[in-house]
Design the sequence.
């Protein structure tokens, strides 16, 4: 079973991202579950959502929050430091960050793998959300898939097409562009 | 053709109602139920569901509208949560007393104050004596299936059913759910055709005055209908399995065959407990889970049968009757009382107000149950003292 934790802010589409990822895994023939750590949502407030992906249905029985994720998706880099985003992250885990900066700019523990993508820039280009508050969820999923390969790009794009409440084509294009512009740090010991 | 789709628990409720071909929906939005009626209103507006959607100003009115619709012979549906359910209270008695087979989904949410939107069972359990049947479910598939199953049973015994699911842990969790072929659902659930209904030209009265010489018998008949529903839950749950491949009973037994120790669970705590029990089994512990599904009518005989001969029983309650104990703990104890060699029953209270219940918490509860020598009515698990 693979467990993914996503950190974003209200309005970025974090909860929908967790669901799209679950649906993409399901389209790949796997079992998946996604859920938000629900707060009373306010625009801009920290939001956490989770996705579990497994080969078999019975592995997914557990319904508690995820405390030791395999991978992290960070939709807003200002959350690093403001929230203990790395808490419980397993060694070798991917950290996918929405930022125009390269992965080397982030002082992340070397036991983790880092990929960055300018999801905000991509989302603004495709007019997803507003210029000041872009909806970055579909773009950052493109980067997640590029870095981890946990789901196929084809399934991700189909899941985006089906689950985007508006601007379906733009969301698909944003994910593709982010996929193609993901920056990945030297993978060191984690050479896959 | 049936197909699978990744759905939230709330949307599984909506699709369950759609497949049941409900004819009147009346509801008032409340977190965490809102998505249920949002999707239903879209399904009606887009023509996928041929129903009348009655918007109202409160939950009391929502249930009143369902009562009117059901009395007129329509299949009626609503959904609510917590304070909304409490506001319906008067009309819950009315629906059951008038013998109207309304089905509703209640998303378990803790009662205020202090305000909470997270899961706890006190909202639905404080309505347990209104004459509504209650089913507590564990997965989104079980949500959808039990909306359909509820109408099938409700319309045979003329009593309403509440399908109860956990806030967020189910209502907002997305997972694959099979949506059945409409023809197969129609085969299982024929149109509602009541013995009596309000119609122009054929006047009858609902809710008339019943003096002491008749009221008593109305109450007796509700109790008999509840008792009859016990058999129906098993019969229709089995038929559901034959048609759709998923069978439902009054309870669900998990790894109980040779188990000395049994944890009794409801709702989503069951799923997490199953993972814990697998781990304990790998260590050689003889422990199993009894999931209580149908809570009204209460399956006394079934419980006596499956709990007979066990060393100890631990009941996990996500609820409390203040001044008493956990509510399922009380009910399990009372069910076992007539048995000659009844196992000792221990009461655990956990997860109130949506506090996360983890695999380790269930393992701790089991270890506590195994070593504890004298019965405790309330063992608090996870409370900060």
Sequence:
């Amino acid at each position: 079973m693979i467990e993914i934790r996503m950190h974003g802010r209200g309005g970025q589409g974090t909860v929908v991202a967790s669901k799209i990822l679950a649906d993409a895994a399901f389209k790949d023939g796997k079992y998946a579950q996604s859920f938000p750590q629900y707060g009373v949502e306010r625009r801009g407030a920290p939001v956490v959502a989770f996705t579990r992906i497994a080969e078999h249905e019975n592995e997914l029985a557990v319904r508690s929050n995820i405390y030791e994720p395999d991978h992290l998706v960070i939709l807003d880099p200002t959350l690093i430091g403001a929230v203990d985003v790395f808490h419980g992250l397993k060694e070798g885990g991917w950290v996918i960050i929405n930022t125009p900066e390269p992965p080397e700019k982030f002082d992340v523990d070397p036991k983790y793998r880092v990929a960055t993508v300018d999801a905000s820039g991509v989302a603004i280009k495709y007019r997803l959300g507003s210029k000041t508050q872009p909806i970055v969820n579909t773009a950052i999923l493109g980067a997640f898939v590029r870095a981890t390969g946990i789901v196929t790009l084809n399934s991700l794009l189909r899941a985006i097409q089906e689950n985007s409440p508006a601007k379906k084509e733009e969301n698909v294009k944003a994910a593709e562009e982010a996929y193609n512009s993901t920056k990945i740090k030297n993978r060191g010991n984690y050479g896959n | 053709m049936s197909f699978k789709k990744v759905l939230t628990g709330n949307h599984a409720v909506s699709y369950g109602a759609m497949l049941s071909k409900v004819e009147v929906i009346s509801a008032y939005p409340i977190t965490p139920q809102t998505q249920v009626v949002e999707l239903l209103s879209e399904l009606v507006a887009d023509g996928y569901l041929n129903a009348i959607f009655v918007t109202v100003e409160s939950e009391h009115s929502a249930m009143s509208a369902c009562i009117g619709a059901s009395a007129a012979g329509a299949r009626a549906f609503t959904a609510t949560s917590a304070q909304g359910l409490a506001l319906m209270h008067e009309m819950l008695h009315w629906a059951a007393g008038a013998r109207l087979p309304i089905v509703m989904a209640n998303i378990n949410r803790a009662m205020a104050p202090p305000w909470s939107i997270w899961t706890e069972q006190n909202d639905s359990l404080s309505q347990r004596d209104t004459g509504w049947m209650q089913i507590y479910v564990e997965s989104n598939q079980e949500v959808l299936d039990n909306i359909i199953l509820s109408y099938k049973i409700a319309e045979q015994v003329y009593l309403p059913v509440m399908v109860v699911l956990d806030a967020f842990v189910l209502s907002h969790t997305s997972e694959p759910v099979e949506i059945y072929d409409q023809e197969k659902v129609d085969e299982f659930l024929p149109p509602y055709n009541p013995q009596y209904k309000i119609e122009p030209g054929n006047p009858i009265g609902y809710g008339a005055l019943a003096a002491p010489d008749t009221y008593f018998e109305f109450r007796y008949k509700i109790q008999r209908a509840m008792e009859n529903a016990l058999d129906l839950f098993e019969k229709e749950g089995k038929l559901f399995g034959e048609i759709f491949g998923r069978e439902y009973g009054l309870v669900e037994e998990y790894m109980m065959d040779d188990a000395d120790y049994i944890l009794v669970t409801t709702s989503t705590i069951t799923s997490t407990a199953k993972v814990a029990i697998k781990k304990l089994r790998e260590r050689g512990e003889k422990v199993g889970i009894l999931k209580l599904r149908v809570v009204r009518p209460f399956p006394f005989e079934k419980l006596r049968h499956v709990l007979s001969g066990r060393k100890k029983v631990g009941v996990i309650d996500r609820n409390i009757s203040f001044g008493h104990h956990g509510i399922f703990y009380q009910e399990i104890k009372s069910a076992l009382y007539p048995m000659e060699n009844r196992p000792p029953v221990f009461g655990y209270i956990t997860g109130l107000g949506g506090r996360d219940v983890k695999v380790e918490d269930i393992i701790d509860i089991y270890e506590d149950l195994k070593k504890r020598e004298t019965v405790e009515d309330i063992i608090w698990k996870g409370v900060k003292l």
Summary: Chain B has two domains: 3-244, 251-381. Chain B has a mean pLDDT of 97.
